[in-house]
Amino acid sequence: MALPNLHPMLNVxxxxxxxxxxxxxxxALDVEAVRISQKQINDFVTEVDQAAExxxxxxxxxxxxGHGILAEESGSEFGAKxxxxxxIIDPLDGTTNFIHGxxxxxxxxxxxxxxxxxxxxxxDPTRNDLFTATKGRGAYMNERRIRVSKRVRLNxxxxxxxxxxxxxxxxxxxxxxxxxxxxxxxxxxxxxAAALDMAYVAAGFTDGFFETGLNPWDMAxxxxxxxxxxxxxxxxxxxxxxxxxxxxMAANPRVYGQLVSILGKYSKFASAGEKATxxxxxxxxxxxxxxxxxxxxxxxxxxx
Length: 304
Description:
Region (Disordered): 283-304
Largest sheet: 7 strands, mixed
Mean pLDDT: 89
Distance between the termini: 79 Å
Pfam families: Inositol_P
Number of domains: 2
Structural class: alpha+beta
Radius of gyration: 21 Å
Helix content: 25-40%
Low-confidence stretches: 295-304
Shape: globular
Strand order of the largest sheet: 3-4-5-6-7-8-9
Protein name: Inositol-1-monophosphatase
CATH architecture of the largest domain: 2-Layer Sandwich
CATH topology of the largest domain: Fructose-1,6-Bisphosphatase, Chain A, domain 1
Number of strands: 14
Order of helices and strands: HEEHEEHEEEEEEHEHEHEEHHH
CATH superfamily of the largest domain: Fructose-1,6-Bisphosphatase, subunit A, domain 1
């Protein structure tokens, strides 16, 4: 059903997202029967991802045959190659959750015009939650206007993240971030679908989000939802040009500044000085761990 107040391009994206969502919901009824293959270790793709992507691309290109496509599973092989309009698609963000029957995953569709995100849809088929935004027109959840949270104290904040899961990811760096941040928060969550995590920041359900290793299709739609809901989004050092940078941080404006001051030094764009400080702290921690290990001979020499 077309919604009269939506931008026409957003209406087409909503139609595509709902078509993909109903396909995903049907498959979820018998997830054991879904064929799964592995792109790399811990990175899965299912026939559902591929079918959902196909229906999204068909819906978009039927309406706008001159537009370009950047999709998770098929890259840029469909659509026009030189259009200033490019649809950025993740047909099923949270595939690992989906194949376990863990109900936190979504469809994410964004439209970039000359490289700037102008339309966004994130659709959660399990809850039938539809998040939409058009640049300059605000962000909505199920047609109700949404705003980022008003919390300003970190100890009252709920922050979501995504843990590293691929070989070669910097697990130690992530543990450092978590140990710096977790004691300062009311709670940290790892739901497992970045696009939906970002929609939740836009809706004020969480106060912030950060993750490394993300691709443009994970972040594009969510980033517009957040900025249209009054939030900020960028890399860990706070710079707004982050879509191709594999790191993303988002929050309401007051919390965002505090996250930059804690996580900025972990950014691959941190200054050389900040990185050196981080290395020294890690070396000092390692030294302390060695010096506090009990002496191997103590138990035998002890009188009791």
